[in-house]
């Protein structure tokens, strides 16, 4: 039996058993009020002195915050109780009496302190709500792709080479040699398309990001679809559909959690295709007009993305960046060889990039040339070049960052709360 079923009104006047943890406890006269959490929800239960055995009432009096218990009782509808229902306890069994002085109290704690006790912090209502949304976003990504005939083909985590630039590689000793933690599974899903047509990988990716911004982790999770024969335009259409699907699904299934987070859902409801689009060049002009000191040819930074994303009510694609500020594998724009056929999808409300995607180079000669221009070791990419030797096709794909997406959907100020145990430049504990 779960608390969520009680809150859904399915068990009113029924006898129930709940296994969970004490969130808060107070007493007033002959009644003790226990708020209990079981992983599906939180409910108030009451213990009336004249309705239970003496021992039960005394035991309840000793309970500390986070003690684990099993209760039996009757579900009552009660307008005064948070959530509209309460359980009138008949029996209570103590499973474990939690140590006194639970480190996270009612007073305000600094984020650094809370991150240091993340193993406990993830139990609090706000963190539970965020992590429930995260789980829903991940499920939505997978369901969306599975329903459309994509095959999940996981990419390795230990790799011989860079995908997104050598500056952020984590090096790992590898039996007298060295390997790198993957920055993106892209190159491997590119191999898989020739076997399956439409594929995706989902897994952790790693970047030795030196930036201490509110939207960078050193370990984050990415969904990376890759599609044979997809043009740049096909790719954008798929992204629109997928993001719309994720948002709709979360609004539908995680209403209660978004309420806990006090998320105004009206802006989210606007995420419907077609999304807005502007070129990189237009974005630069827009920024320059607004007084930003940025030149054509420079990459957009966080403040720039924020500015652009605030100009639109829907997610907006910023497309066709200069070749020099993008990765080596991107297909040139046939109308302007200084540009590549790529787009970043910026989430609205100031959030900025949640997806990076592009059409990939399918011509062997051009790809060899780019590997050289980017100063990359050709030996490490021989296997990848093979994909352009045997049955090469135009193809496209993208990577959606789970944490960035959750950050936007939950409207959080910082990315660290979107993942159970965040990893940043400053933190690998707990
Ligand atoms: O734009 P990125 O670097 O693109 C790639 O890795 C491509 N190889 C993906 C592909 O085409 N298959 O990263 C993709 C997304 C970003 O849009 C962002 O959401 C997220 O990954 N991301 C990060 N999230 C948190 N912390 C970081 N340090 C991130 N770096 C990228
Ligand atoms: Mg990017």
What does this structure look like?
With 430 residues, the protein is an alpha+beta fold. 31% of the residues lie in helices and 28% in strands. It has 14 helices and 18 strands. The chain has helices spanning 3-7, 54-62, 111-116, 118-121, 125-147, 186-196, 232-253, 255-260, 266-269, 280-289, 302-310, 364-373, 382-386, 402-410, and strands spanning 15-28, 31-37, 42-48, 68-77, 85-96, 151-152, 158-159, 171-174, 177-181, 198-206, 219-228, 276-279, 316-319, 332-333, 336-340, 342-347, 352-360, 395-401. It has an 8-stranded mixed sheet, with helices on both faces. A 5-stranded mixed barrel has the order 1-2-3-5-4. Strands 7-9-8 form a 3-stranded antiparallel sheet, with no helix packed on it. Strand 14 (332-333) and strand 15 form a beta hairpin. It is elongated and about 85 Å long. The model has no long low-confidence stretch (mean pLDDT 96). Bound molecules: 4-amino-1,4-dioxobutan-2-aminium adenosine-5'-monophosphate (4AD) and magnesium ion (MG). Magnesium ion is lined by residues 344, 353, 356.
Short description:
With 430 residues, the chain is an alpha+beta fold.
